[in-house]
Structures are given as C-alpha cells and as structure tokens.
Specification:
By secondary structure, the chain is mainly α. It has helices at 3-18, 35-47, 51-63, 67-79, 87-98, 103-125, 130-135, 141-159, 163-173, 178-189, 194-206, 215-228, 232-244, 252-265, 271-286, 290-302, and strands at 21-22, 25-26. The protein contains 16 helices and 2 strands. Helix 9 packs antiparallel against helix 10 (178-189), helix 13 (232-244) packs antiparallel against helix 14 and helix 14 packs antiparallel against helix 15. The longest helix is centred in the first third of the chain and has 23 residues, at 103-125. It is elongated.
C-alpha cells in the first residue's frame, strides 16, 4: 500500500470510531462528521486514487439526498472507479441529481439518453426482422421514449442557461426546425460556445431559416468569434472570407493568418479541405509584402484561443450541495419517464 493510501485508510478508520482529527482539532467521539468533512475525506481518497473509499463515503451521502454526491456517484460509475462500470447506475445517479435541479446532471442524462436512442435507431436499420431485434435486446417501442425523455432533460438544462444543452437542442432541431435551432444556437453562442457560434455562421452563410440580406456580414461575425476560440472549421471559413472579401474587407494578411492556423490544426480526414486551404494560403502569401508576411507569421505564433464553454468535461465535485430540496420543490418529472432510485 502506498504511503498516501495508508494515510487515507487510517483517516477512514478514525471516522468510523476513533474520533477524527479534522481541521486541526479533535471532534467529540459522539459527534458525527459533518457533510463537508465527509466530502473532504472522500476527495482526499479520490485524489489518492483510493476510489473504493471515495465511493463508500459518496454512496452514503447520495442516499441521504446530497445532489453533488449523487453526481459524483454517476461520475464514478461512468469511469468504473471504485465500482464496476454500469450504464444503468450512471443514468440513475445523474438522474437523481437532475431531479433536484442540477443543470449539469440534466445535461448529462439528456445527452446519454439521446445517444442511446441514436444507437438503437442505427442498430434497427441493420436488423431486418422483429425476431432478430428481440434476440439482440432491442425494443423499437423504447426508442421514442428515450428521445422524448432525453429532450426533456436537455431542455431543462437549457432553460437554466447551460450553453452545452442549448447547443444540443439547436443541433437536434437544425434540420426539422431551423428557426428553433437558431434560437438555441444564439443563446449558447452568446455564452461563448464556439460550436454554436460556428453553426450560426453556417446558417447565415447558407441563408437557412432567415430572410435574405447581409447574411455574409453576420456569418463573418459569428465565424470570427468561433475562430478566436479555436474552432478550426471557423478559422478556415473566416480565412476564406478575408481572402475573398465576403462580409468583411479583403485582407490577405488576416486571410493568411487564419488559414495558416486552420491548416495546422485540421484533424485527419480533412485532406481535401486542407489541400484547398493550402492553395488559398499560398496565394494570399504571394500577395503580401515582406513586412506583412513577418507580421502575419508573428501573429500566428503568438495566437492563443480564447476560452469556450463548449465540450466541458464533467469533473469530480469536492463540495456538498446546499441542501436537499423538499418534496414540494423537487422537479415534477412526468410519470412516464424513469425516476431516481436510491440504490
């Protein structure tokens, strides 16, 4: 056992019955440790990779109704830390926190359910008979339920201002309801979500769902905002717009900088686009003076992406929630959806 692991074990034993030494003084043996102290010890255990100890503390707090503990259990089951990975328990514990109004938990539950619905839809297309569907454990009747419940939780999170949930709704409605998609994208984009900003640029550039007008100007505004946050496709688009003078004043130096950044960060699979961007960049390069080239290269080397609210990864929560909501304050989740189980 490592030195840190030994220390965590001793602290946990002390919690059980020896009267813990916390925050620099001894607690009375008859006084139970506070929720904050338990969270602190669980976090020490988690950081020391003593995941089973962290799980035991979190499980008790989660069953008592602490939303952050419930979120942490979902997190542990997601990665299989201290417990066996279990998709059902991942969804259940995130759902428990979601029902208490936790926006990040609502986003997570909604995203998982929509992903499962998509997986089943794709799998169904590969199955030609009902017998094969039953054999593989797929229930076509459950697909619409997964989608409707997933959208329910995504909307709950979006209405609380979660930008990733707002983007997710925009992405879901993009083809069936472009106007609704645009509204959700705009809410997320105004919170510095680079993917939503890029999609707004695409909508304006392609004149989807909006009256014709100075669409290229609007497109350039959103592309530039996304490009500044490291969105590679937006960098490619705004670079090309500066090259052609579409929606912005023609500027070969800026075109060179943005195209150069995009080329250097394109993922594998974009070889055709990369080849075209290289051609545009080299043409822009040929039209610059020596001083402009030096300045554009200096700006490229010094460039740093601004923070984005997109794709933020769930993390372990080191502190407890404020207090469990009373039954009258819990979300009135529709009866047809699954509900939290204090397992």
């Amino acid at each position: 056992m490592s030195r840190i692991g030994f220390t965590i074990t001793i602290v946990l034993l002390v919690l059980i019955g020896l009267g813990p030494l916390i925050k620099g003084h001894f607690l009375n043996r008859n006084d139970p440790p506070s929720i904050g102290d338990q969270f602190h010890l669980a976090t020490l255990a988690y950081e020391a990779e003593q995941y089973e100890d962290a799980y035991r503390i979190m499980h008790a707090l989660a069953k008592a109704g602490d939303a952050n503990a419930q979120f942490n259990l979902g997190f542990l089951y997601t990665w299989g830390r201290g417990v066996r990975q279990d998709d059902g328990k991942v969804i259940n514990w995130y759902r428990c926190a979601a029902e208490q109004g936790d926006a990040e938990a609502q986003l997570t539950v909604g995203t998982i359910l929509l992903a499962k619905d998509n997986e089943q839809t794709l799998a169904k297309k590969e199955i030609t008979s009902t017998e094969q569907s039953v054999t593989k454990g797929l229930d076509p009747r459950n697909q619409s339920k997964l989608q409707t419940e997933g959208l329910y939780w995504l909307r709950r999170a979006a209405e609380q201002g979660n930008p990733e949930a707002q983007y997710g709704l925009g992405d879901h409605f993009m083809y069936d309801d472009p106007k609704a998609a645009m509204q959700w994208f705009r809410l997320a984009a105004n919170q510095d979500h680079d993917n939503a900003q890029f999609e707004l640029g695409e909508i304006y550039r392609q004149e989807k769902g909006i009256p014709p007008g100075e669409n290229y100007v609007e497109a350039a505004i959103w592309y530039l905002l996304a490009a500044e946050r490291g969105n590679v496709l937006a960098q490619a688009q705004i670079g090309e717009m500066f090259f052609n003078g579409d929606g912005v004043q023609e500027d070969f130096a800026k075109a060179y900088m943005w195209l150069n950044l995009a080329i250097g960060n394109l993922a594998p699979g974009f070889e055709v686009l990369q080849k075209r961007l290289i051609g545009l960049r080299d043409t822009a390069f040929a039209r610059l003076s020596r001083e402009q080239i030096i300045d554009a290269q200096r700006q490229s080397s010094r460039w740093h992406a601004r923070p984005s609210t997109a794709n933020q990864v769930a993390e372990w929560r080191p502190r407890s929630a404020v207090a469990r909501l009373g039954d009258s304050e819990m979300l009135a989740v529709p009866n047809e959806y699954s509900h939290c189980e204090m397992q």
